Amino acid sequence: MAVEVISTTKAPGAVGPYSQAIKAGDFLFASGQIPINPEKGKIVGGGIAAQAEQSMKNVGAILEAAGLSYDDVVKTTVYLTNMNFFGAVNEVYAKYFQKNLPARSCVEISKLPKDVFVEVEVVAYCGK
Q1: Superfamily (CATH H level) for 3-125
Q2: Which residues, 6+ apart, have CB-to-CB distance to 87 below 8 Å?
Q3: Are 112 and 79 in contact (CB under 8 A)?
Q4: What is the rounded CA–CA span in Å between residue 2 and residue 12?
């Protein structure tokens, strides 16, 4: 099985020893994306909706670098630091996933890198 590292400057660089995404066979496994603006290298302000929006944009940039789109995503995992953010994140999320709704898990955790409120990771199908 061929394995390919996917990388783009349109999403934040890895903040540790990992890749933005790995294409393995017919699947793309994208690392969790937090709300860092890749041009400024800073966490976006404006609360949970703004952070969810930036996280989703970062996911999109990685998908694009792999020649994919949100329609190719088959599974997402959303990590929240407070489940009360669920509704606001859902509103943002729904703008990106409209056609083929992926399977999803959403979990509350105690802390995320850089003290952000949300992180989104995806698995996409590449075997069109």
Answers
A1: RutC-like (3.30.1330.40)
A2: none
A3: yes
A4: 25
Q: Mean pLDDT across the stretch 68-96?
A: 98
User: Who contacts 120 (Cβ-Cβ below 8 Å, separation ≥6)?
Assistant: 32, 33, 52, 55, 56, 59, 76, 77, 78, 79
| 106 burial type by CB count under 10 A (0-12 exposed, 13-18 middle, 19+ buried) | middle
Residues annotated catalytic, as ranges: 106
pLDDT for res 105: 98
Q: Position 74: which residue type? A: V
pLDDT at 2: 84
Q: What is the 3-state secondary structure (H, E, C) of 76-107?
A: EEEEECCHHHHHHHHHHHHHHCCCCCCEEEEE
- Which residue do the tokens 């409120």 mark? 117
Q: Hey, where are the domains in the chain?
A: 3-125
Strand, helix or coil for residue 48: helix
pLDDT at 128 over 80: no
* Helix orientation angle between 48-65 and 86-96, rounded to the nearest 10 degrees: 30
* Amino acid 100: pLDDT: 87
